[in-house]
Write a structure and sequence with these properties.
alpha+beta; Alpha-Beta Plaits; four-stranded antiparallel β-sheet; about 70% helix
């Protein structure tokens, strides 16, 4: 048995010397790893990534109705704007939907492509969504991409997805516009009937009583009451519209309901005289003569319905136009074409990663082998290690 060297401190120069002695072991193993890794990378199927860029069409904002909605309030504007949320969120929702994914999977037979035999729907959806991506780029455009082994099919899938996206978006817009139009139409015709009833009531009252005017202070007071009643009617219309188009659980419904209740309370307090003590405008209605009170109630109803008509008529006209529109919601900036360069595997990255991993694994092995070869083992395990490293030294003809 060779003489075991006495233990001493190892310097950086010693480390370099050790590596030089074990260079054959290091180089041969790294070459073997690199060759095997290179061979494996050529066995990995190539995949191609096709992508398309689309621009979201600017909304018209409802034209006349858009400006009118601003006069009523923010919640009303949201109701007309398509059920809350912006167009970008809706498009992302369509792209992420199972409906979109299943159409693509069925058309391009992706169940067979992914070679899935069990739980086909769930596993195919998961595999597809790992390859099908979409996001906003720095310019605010939506980029849609698909990774596939066939470059032509990857481009076809992206182009099919953009086409389906536009169809789904238009179908949603038409469905929403129809629902909106039906609601507004019902309110518009009710408004028209109420207005006719108010006009008829005023005409009958004037013929029966001969009263065509009342004192100015009372007239001013009832105009103020009528304005509050008009605001209440508009808020109720706003609340019902949001509830109809966005659902009862939408936060906007809660806001609108709270505003309606506040207006109702204010009107009730004014009518009962709770807030009229120091006001020259608001009078106690109960103290007015019955004939004057009836006249003003009819006039107030007439003014309320006339004011409502200023909103419901353009709303109804705009709703009918919106229902007939078939304007595309997206514009294709860059149509997907079959990519010429593969997206994966990235062979150079894989080879270099494995190469350096093998290098960092071998370095501690080399220093461990040197230590066992030059110092006395401390236990049975180190003796077994030493025998293994002795065989390595002999195999690679490493000179100690």
């Amino acid at each position: 048995m060779s003489e075991i060297k006495e233990k001493r401190e190892v310097s950086y120069t010693d480390y370099l010397s050790i590596l030089l002695k074990w260079k054959k072991f290091l180089i041969i193993n790294l070459l073997v790893v690199a060759i095997i890794t290179t061979g494996i990378t050529f066995l990995i199927p190539e995949k191609f990534k096709a992508d398309s860029t689309i621009m979201i069409q600017e909304s018209s904002g409802g034209g006349l109705l858009g400006g009118m909605m601003q006069d009523i309030g923010g919640v009303f504007s949201k109701a007309f704007g398509g059920g809350g949320g912006n167009t970008e969120d809706k498009l992302f929702g369509f792209l992420a939907s199972n409906q979109m994914s299943e159409k693509i999977i069925e058309k391009f037979n992706l169940v067979g492509y992914y070679e899935i035999t069990e739980y086909k729907r769930a596993k195919t959806l998961k595999a597809f969504k790992d390859d099908f991506k979409f996001d906003l780029n720095d310019n605010g455009f939506i980029e849609i991409s698909m990774i596939h082994k066939n470059p032509e099919i990857s481009a076809e899938i992206v182009n099919f997805a953009t086409s389906e996206l536009d169809k789904m978006s238009q179908e949603y817009a038409i469905t929403y516009a129809k629902k909106y139009r039906e609601f507004v139409e019902k309110r518009y015709f009710k408004n028209m009937n109420d207005l006719k009833d108010a006009e008829l009531s005023l005409e009958i009252f004037q013929k029966e009583t001969g009263i065509f005017a009342i004192p100015e202070q009372i007239e001013v007071a009832f105009k103020a009451y009528a304005e509050l009643e008009t605001q209440l009617s508009l808020k109720e219309l706003e609340r019902d519209l949001v509830k109809e188009t966005q659902g009862e659980n939408n936060p906007s419904v809660v806001v609108a309901e709270s505003q309606v209740n506040l207006l109702k309370k204010k009107i009730s307090d004014l009518k009962s005289g709770k807030q009229s003590d120091n006001s020259l405008i608001f009078l106690k209605i109960d103290e007015l003569p019955n004939v004057q009170l009836r006249f003003l109630q009819i006039k107030r109803e007439l003014e309320i319905q006339a004011k409502l008509l200023e909103f419901t008529l353009p709303m109804y006209e705009q709703a009918m136009m919106e229902e007939q529109k078939t304007i595309p919601t997206i514009t294709i900036i860059d149509k997907a074409i079959a990519p010429e360069l593969k997206d994966s595997p990235k062979k150079a990255f894989i080879i270099l990663s494995i190469f350096f991993l093998a290098l960092f694994i071998q370095l501690p092995l080399i220093f461990r082998g040197y230590k066992l070869a030059n110092y006395a083992p401390q236990n049975n395990f180190e003796e077994k290690e030493k025998r293994i490293f002795d065989k390595i030294v002999k195999l690679y003809k490493i000179k100690e």
